[in-house]
Amino acid sequence: MIHISVYYFGAISLILIGLYAVLVKKNLLKMLIGLSIMETGVNLLLISVGYISGRSAPILSEGVGPNQAVDPIPQALVLTAIVIGVATTAMALSVAIILYEKYGTLNVEEIRRLRG
Amino acid sequence: MNGQYAALIIALPLVSAFFVPVIKAISKKAVMPFLLLVTLAQVGIAGWVFNEVYTSDKPIIVMAGGWRPPVGINLYIGHFAALFVLIIAVISFFMAYFSIKAVKVEPLDKYAMLFLLLMLGATGMIATGDIFNLFVFMEITAITAYALTAYNKTGEAAEASMKYMILGGIGSSFFLIGIALIYGATGTLNMAQIAQLAGNINPTVAQVGLALLIFGLAVEAELFPLNAWAPDAYQAAPHPITVMFSAFVVKAGLYAAARLLYLMQAVSTWHSVLRLLVIMAVLTVVVAEFSALRQRDVKRMIAYSSISQVGMIAFALALGSQAGVDAGVFHMVNHAIVKALLFLGVGYVGIKLGGTTLEDFEGLGRRMPLTAFAITVGSLSAVGIPLFNIFWSKVRIMLAGVSAGYTWGVALILGASVVEAVYYLRLIHRIWFAGGGERLSESFALGAIMLFLVALILVIGFYPNYAWSLAQKAGADIFDVTRYVSNVPLMGVGA
Amino acid sequence: MVSVLKRSLAIITLLIIGYWIAQAFAGVPFGQDKMLVGQYYLNNVKAQTGAVNAVTAVVVNYRGFDTLGEVTVLFIASTGVGALLWKRKKERTARTEGSIVLTTGTRYLFPFVLIFGAYIFIHGHLTPGGGFPGGATIATGFLLLYMAFIVYEIPHKGFEVAEGLVGMGYVIVGLIGLMIGGYFLFDWIWQTWQLGTNNIGRLLSGGFIPVIYTIIGLKVGTELSGIIDNMIKEEVRE
Q1: 3-class secondary structure for B51-78?
Q2: What percent of chain B has pLDDT over 90?
Q3: Closest Cα partner for B204 from B184, B229, B228, B176?
Q4: CATH code, domain carrying A111
């Protein structure tokens, strides 16, 4: 058996749950929610990689010196990744609006059938 | 001029894209000419960068913010990047002109912005020297591509875009997991420093990390089984955008995959990742060629052909030998020219005749002789007839494949090429020997662009040596990691 | 039956993928100090950028190129949503006005929401936050207006132009750096002019971080409001 931290375990579980929704669900909105859950899992994973036991947030005010702070890079990366996730979701939702206008449904199988 | 001014290849399209709303507020008619002007300026800058890199024989390292890598992000404009930034700029310029004729769906100002940002994203993916920055540029490319795929706002376009988005979303999540692994193992995001430290990484971490990165890029690089979106998207996107997808967006993904692959050479489990990629590439070729045979729509058929050629490039890049990488880069250049020509021709037919099914191409030789001639030359070249450009790169890929010990792969690809010949010859037959109709007037400027591309195909076909030497230099840029590392002025943090 | 088969197949695949990823992460020990470049940032962040918040310094200054890309991604999203949901004539079709609590609350809270958003992005180099959360806060202000009043609309033309101009502002700040310091996105306010060197930990420090975060805050605010506007309105036939 492999031993990993509970934080990694939780983050990887979130990724898998999201992926499950994307693969199995038929409603487009649910698939998109799955994608968002997956992104959240990845972000948590990144943050956990940067965590160092017993240290605080990398804001160097009183009591927090360069050796008492966690790694700032993953946090910066996650900030970027979140914004990118928001952008993807916005695009996906507007495409879903078009699909609903054209086919009158958000069910993936229905859409495929209507298109023939 | 100072090499740092090469940052303009990123800054110019960006600032111009932000400027479009202002132009629109002044005059809506000025948007498309402005697009043409910006792409022309981009050609100028890219030409200067290309000249600088190839005359000095040294890469330009742009350090954003003045921070030396690995503290800051650097752009690495080596022989490969310089060559492809120029190709991207030139093709974008042609397509900006084609867009004026081809794109009538509103809102044009938004189209112009997305067009510029697609060009920017691909340029950035090729130029960057930082693995997370690569992710950012990949997302810029991908999200503009989603929007442009659905731009026509038909049901098919929206469905293609949705498919692309879901695969792309999964791909980018996997790419980020890969980054998390590599970062956790090395503590750096700079590509050159990762290459330095690659030998010390825990082999399992490196193998999974690299595989996840490649898997994430495979969506952009259209490798089987992550290319399900591509034919739909190619067919549904506006014609100029299809050209851009095929000519450089997919190349940016391939290049990034190859770059990451060779950076991690020192990893002991490296060969297993190579083998995986070779299998994916061969499957891409075979599946795509057989799917192409069944198509009744020419644009879709050429899309499948493009995917199969991309698989061939991936095969060459994954061989792990200098000869393979050189041949792959050579094929990238040739494929960019040929597919730009083919999709341009087919797109033009689509606008003039209102459709791109095989029936629409009957009698094209009489109705639009210039376009028909261009499509014929492109098709013959794509099939790999000697004395056309693709012949030379295909031969080199086959030779490299055999000498790397992948004879089965070469045999399968050759078999698939026969299939390719069948459907292209069927198209040529329809164009020249079936049906007929009245002569239509053809645009002079578009004809000139097509003739220019035809001339390139023939010139490279007859005198392949110059292009081959360019490709060799660009290939060495990817393959020779020691030189890559020594060219980046790392400031020795921690290492 | 088919769906059960499909589900179990999906679950098995996912478990394999999960195991594969997890066994790799077993090689990346949790909670240990693995910093390389990160330690450099922590050691030098105050002297080199003037910011107290190391994350902000990494985001805006050391890795400013990423942030430029990030701003671009959001710009693409707003442009793309605008392009895809474009209609010849669009109008709001809401029928019910917000409740009295919502309308009154919105009327009084709106300016404070804007001020709070501005506070977040101006103080990005000192406290957690910055341009993106600040901009998002500003956009919630406009979202409140949309929910409370059925006739309210943002001035799109103005917002669109502002969005473009502010984005240009970011690139131009970078290009000024190229001209003054010789590098694109060079922090000329801190490193060349050395403004605010005695002020570390107070508002007027941090070089160009507050400037860029103001730009980003305005950009994100206008873009997200634009996205809301595009999604909320529906086509009307003339």
Answers
A1: HHHHHHCCCEEEEHHHCCCCCCCEEEEC
A2: 23
A3: B184
A4: 1.10.287.3510
Ramachandran area for residue C196 (φ above 0: left; ψ -120 to 50: alpha; else beta): left
**Residue B105 in contact with residue B96, Cβ under 8 Å?**
no
Measured between alpha carbons, how far is residue C134 from residues A59, B57, B345, B355, C158 in Å? 18, 46, 49, 49, 20
- Chain A residues touching B166 at Cβ < 8 A: 22, 31, 35
| Count of structural domains, chain A | 1
Q: Which helix (H) or strand (E) holds B91?
A: helix B79-102
C12 touches chain A (CB under 8 A): no
Q: Which residue has the tokens 């650097």?
A: B74
Q: In whole angstroms, what is the distance from residue C223 CA to residue C159 CA? A: 8
**Residue showing tokens 């994100």:** C220
Predicted ipTM of the assembly: 0.94
Q: Residue C238: its pLDDT value, please?
A: 62
- Reference B453, options B376, B352, B354; nearest CA is B376
* Dist CA C64 CA C68 (whole Å): 6
Could B110 and C61 be called an inter-chain contact, meaning their C-beta atoms sit closer than 8 Å? no
Which residues in chain C land under pLDDT 70? 1-2, 201, 238
Report the distance separating Cα B183 and Cα B252, nearest Å. 23
Q: Which of residues 53-112 of A touch C (CB under 8 A)?
A: 53, 57-61, 66-67, 69, 71-73, 75-77, 79-80, 82-84, 86-88, 90-91, 93-95, 97-98
Contact B11 C24 (CB under 8 A): no
**Cβ neighbours, 10 Å, residue B403:** 13
For residue B67, give both structure tokens: 């921070």
Which residues does residue B297 pair with via DSSP β-bridges, in sequence order? B357
CB contact (8 A) between residue C178 and residue B62: no
Say how far apart CA B288 and CA B420 lie, in whole Å.
10
Helix (H) or strand (E) holding C137: helix C131-148
| Residue A42 domain boundaries | 6-115
pTM comes to 0.93
Residue C152 neighbours by CB under 8 Å, 6+ apart: C92, C145, C146
Residue A1 maps to a domain: no
